């Protein structure tokens, strides 16, 4: 072993869902939206000569569009390259305590990767047997709290009163609610910002806004948190968001009608597909996200996952303790879900 090898930062990276290369796949493994982006995004006017220049480091147009949409000040919005970027910056900015950061044992599997990367101590209180977050686990001394609502990969939602209880018990640290999937039927924690200046709500364009490929995420919080995030971001890389993304993201926020239409289509498909899953012998808790986390009464999840893949149907399987009996199935179009149901009917016979 060379001496310099001791100085290499060693990390175990996050592994995203597979992006299969073949044509004709049914892709239900990364919670993308099955519908195309709004026509306003496709038709957004761009002056490509502008690519000669650096983009606006503050992404002011996009920040303003997001702030107006949510009825907050521009100074309350931070934008990043997907919510992964926003979350990574938030870990770096807000979680600098010797006390442990707290997040659930079953949750978005990037949290422990960032904690390791930034050398943040953390603890992961276990969800209960029905995969509910236990509020009392978050009453102890800590260096910050983060959880998704709805949680991933379970799809389970907590009420605002639950979030408020966690905030009441954690006024000396930053509490982040990751609302990647909130638009599919949940109630946002944004109204709590009026009362709790230590709350940060993180959102993404990747799911409900059909723009996973563009990479836009944002955080909303009180101006001092947003300033702290921007200070760290400008100490890292000022020009993270490119000009076409700023233009298309801004256009996207202007199409409320299409946004509502696609979100409701996904929710309607989820309800239909849930009934089919029940008919086929699966069990699951009500999902408030664009996926269902389900377990079959007799057939192991891994076998279904592998058999589906042979038929070019991709779902997500986590070979991890407590959840290795489950499949996380993203909600696609009606036709895609019907094809998956047809596969299951044959396979489970
Ligand atoms: N938070 C959660 C809970 C997620 O599941 C995801 C999607 N992988 C993200 C954040 C990140 O999404 P993006 O970077 O595409 O905004």
Topology of this protein?
Blueprint: E1 26-28, H1 39-42, H2 60-70, E2 77-80, H3 82-94, E3 101-102, H4 111-117, E4 122-123, E5 144-148, H5 160-168, E6 175-178, E7 199-204, E8 217-220, H6 223-234, H7 243-252, H8 256-279, E9 282-283, E10 291-296, H9 301-310, E11 313-317, E12 326-330, H10 334-348
Parallel strand pairs: 1-11, 3-4, 3-5, 5-6, 6-7
Antiparallel strand pairs: 2-8, 7-8, 9-10, 10-12, 11-12
Helix pairs in contact: 2-7, 3-6, 8-10
The site of 4'-deoxy-4'-aminopyridoxal-5'-phosphate has 12 residues, from α3.
List the keywords:
14% strand, five-stranded mixed β-sheet, seven-stranded mixed β-sheet, binds 4'-deoxy-4'-aminopyridoxal-5'-phosphate, Aspartate Aminotransferase, domain 2, 349 residues, Aspartate Aminotransferase, domain 1, alpha/beta
Describe the protein's architecture and organization.
- It is a single chain.
- The chain is α/β, with parallel strands linked by helices and 349 residues long.
- It has two domains: 17-36 and 257-347, Aspartate Aminotransferase, domain 1 (Alpha-Beta Complex); 44-252, 3-Layer(aba) Sandwich (Aspartate Aminotransferase, domain 2), CATH 3.40.640.10.
- It has ten helices and twelve strands.
- It has helices spanning 39-42, 60-70, 82-94, 111-117, 160-168, 223-234, 243-252, 256-279, 301-310, 334-348, and strands at 26-28, 77-80, 101-102, 122-123, 144-148, 175-178, 199-204, 217-220, 282-283, 291-296, 313-317, 326-330.
- Helix 2 packs parallel to helix 7 (243-252) and helix 3 crosses helix 6.
- The site of 4'-deoxy-4'-aminopyridoxal-5'-phosphate has 12 residues, from helix 3.
């Amino acid at each position: 072993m060379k001496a310099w090898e001791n100085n290499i930062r060693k990390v175990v990276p996050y592994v995203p869902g597979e992006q299969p290369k073949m044509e004709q796949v049914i892709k239900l493994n990364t919670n993308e939206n099955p519908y195309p982006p709004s026509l306003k995004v496709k038709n957004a006017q761009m002056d490509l000569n502008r690519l000669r220049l650096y983009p606006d480091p503050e992404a002011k147009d996009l920040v303003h569009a997001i702030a107006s949409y949510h009825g907050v000040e521009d100074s309350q919005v931070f934008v990043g390259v997907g919510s992964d970027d926003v979350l990574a910056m938030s870990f770096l900015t807000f979680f600098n305590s010797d006390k442990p950061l707290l997040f659930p044992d079953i949750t978005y599997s990037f949290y422990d990767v960032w904690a390791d990367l930034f050398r943040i101590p953390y603890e992961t209180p276990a969800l209960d047997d029905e995969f509910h977050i236990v509020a009392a686990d978050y009453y102890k001394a800590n260096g910050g709290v983060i959880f998704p609502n709805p949680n991933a990969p379970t799809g389970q939602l907590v009420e605002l009163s639950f979030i408020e209880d966690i905030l009441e018990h954690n006024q000396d640290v930053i509490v982040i609610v990751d609302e990647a999937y909130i638009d599919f039927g949940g109630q946002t924690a944004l109204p709590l910002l009026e009362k709790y200046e230590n709350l940060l709500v993180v959102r993404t364009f990747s799911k409900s806004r059909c723009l996973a490929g563009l990479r836009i995420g944002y955080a909303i919080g009180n101006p001092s948190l947003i300033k702290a995030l921007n200070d760290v971001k400008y100490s890292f890389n000022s020009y993270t968001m490119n000009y076409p993304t700023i233009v298309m993201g801004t256009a996207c926020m202007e199409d409320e009608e299409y946004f509502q239409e696609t979100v409701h289509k996904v929710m309607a498909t989820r309800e239909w597909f849930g009934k089919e899953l029940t008919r086929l012998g699966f069990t699951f808790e009500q999902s408030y996200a664009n996926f269902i986390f389900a377990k079959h009464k007799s057939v192991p999840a891994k076998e279904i996952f592998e058999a589906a893949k042979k038929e070019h149907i991709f779902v997500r399987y986590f070979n991890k303790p407590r959840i290795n009996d489950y499949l996380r199935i993203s909600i696609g179009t009606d036709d895609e879900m019907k094809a998956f149901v047809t596969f299951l009917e044959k396979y489970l016979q």
